[in-house]
C-alpha cells in the first residue's frame, strides 16, 4: 500500500512539474494571467470606484471590490486548466500517457496541482497591487491563515471543474469558454456591486450563486468583520465542486484514452 501511494505521489509530482515547465515556456500567457486582474483592479478602483456606492456595508470601494478581484485573479488562472487538458487530449502526448501504468485521475490531477500553484501566485500579486492602491486588510494572523485556505480552496475547486470541462469538450476553443464563465460569476455577485442594488431576478441569482458567499467570507476575513453563514456556505460549495468533479474527470479521462 505504501509503495503504491509513493508511486502515485511521484507520478503526480512529475506531471505537475511538467505542466509548470510548459507554462514557463509561454511567458505571454503568464503575463496575461498576472496582468488581467491587475488591470481589472485599476479599472474598478480608479474608473468606476467614484461612481459606485457600497450600499449598507459603508466600505470604501477599494475595500469592497478587492475580494472579488482576488477571486478573478485566482479563478482566471485556474480556468485555463481546461485549455491545457483539452490541448493534451487532442495532441500526440496523450498517446504516451495511455501506455503508462498510472491511475486515471493522476494526469488531470497534475494539471490541477500546477494550476493551483500558478493561480495562488497570481492572487498574491493582485493582493500586493490592491495594497499599493490603498487597500488595508485588518485580518488577524488566524484570519490571514483562513484567507489562504479559502483562496486555495477556491482555486482548487475551479481547477477541478476546469479539468472536468476540458475533458468533456472536444475542442480547445470550447475549453476556452470556461475562463469566461469563471470571470463572469464575480460580476454577478455581491463582489463588484452590492447585490441589494440589483433588480429582483438578478438580485435573487446574485444572492444564491456560489461566488457570493465566497466573496463575503473573504471580505469578512480580510476586514475583520462578522462572517455570518458565508463561511460554511463557501465550504459546502467548494467541497462539493471538488468531490463531484475529480472522480468524474478520472472516468472521462479513462473513457477518452482507453481504446
From TrEMBL:
Tree of life domain: Bacteria
Alphabetical keyword list: Antibiotic resistance, Cell membrane, Membrane, Transmembrane, Transmembrane helix, Transport
Membrane topology, record value: Multi-pass membrane protein
GO biological processes: response to antibiotic
Gene Ontology MF terms: ABC-type transporter activity
Bilayer-crossing regions: 30-52, 64-85, 105-133, 145-168, 175-193, 232-253
Location(s), subcellular: Cell membrane; Membrane
Span of domain ABC transmembrane type-2: 28-256
Coiled coil stretches, renumbered: none
InterPro entries tied to this protein: ABC2_TM, ABC2_TM_bact-type, ABC_2_transport, Nod_factor_ABC_transporter
Chief place of localization: membrane
PROSITE patterns: ABC_TM2
GO cellular component: ATP-binding cassette (ABC) transporter complex
Family listed: Belongs to the ABC-2 integral membrane protein family.
Protein name (Swiss-Prot/TrEMBL): Transport permease protein
Lineage of source species: Bacteria, Bacillati, Actinomycetota, Actinomycetes, Streptosporangiales
Amino acid at each position: 500500500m505504501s509503495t503504491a501511494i509513493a508511486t502515485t505521489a511521484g507520478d503526480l509530482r512529475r506531471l505537475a512539474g511538467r505542466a509548470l515547465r510548459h507554462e514557463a515556456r509561454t511567458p505571454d500567457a503568464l503575463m496575461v494571467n498576472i496582468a488581467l486582474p491587475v488591470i481589472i483592479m485599476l479599472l474598478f478602483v480608479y474608473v468606476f470606484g467614484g461612481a459606485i456606492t457600497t450600499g449598507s456595508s459603508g466600505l470604501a470601494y477599494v475595500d469592497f471590490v478587492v475580494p472579488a478581484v482576488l477571486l478573478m485573479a485566482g479563478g482566471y488562472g485556474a480556468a485555463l486548466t481546461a485549455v491545457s487538458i483539452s490541448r493534451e487530449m487532442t495532441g500526440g502526448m496523450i498517446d504516451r500517457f495511455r501506455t503508462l501504468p498510472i491511475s486515471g485521475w493522476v494526469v488531470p490531477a497534475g494539471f490541477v496541482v500546477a494550476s493551483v500553484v500558478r493561480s495562488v501566485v497570481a492572487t498574491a500579486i493582485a493582493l500586493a497591487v490592491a495594497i499599493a492602491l490603498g487597500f488595508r486588510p485588518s485580518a488577524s494572523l488566524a484570519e490571514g491563515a483562513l484567507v489562504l485556505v479559502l483562496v486555495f480552496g477556491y482555486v482548487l475547486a475551479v481547477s477541478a471543474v476546469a479539468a472536468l470541462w476540458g475533458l468533456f469538450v472536444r475542442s480547445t476553443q470550447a475549453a476556452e469558454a470556461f475562463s469566461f464563465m469563471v470571470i463572469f460569476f464575480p460580476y454577478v455577485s455581491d463582489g463588484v456591486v452590492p447585490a441589494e442594488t440589483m433588480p429582483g431576478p438578478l438580485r435573487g441569482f446574485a444572492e444564491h450563486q456560489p461566488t457570493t458567499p465566497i466573496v463575503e467570507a473573504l471580505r469578512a476575513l480580510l476586514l475583520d468583520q462578522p462572517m455570518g453563514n458565508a463561511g460554511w456556505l463557501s465550504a459546502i460549495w467548494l467541497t462539493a465542486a471538488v468531490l463531484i468533479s475529480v472522480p468524474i474527470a478520472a472516468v472521462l479521462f479513462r473513457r477518452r484514452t482507453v481504446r
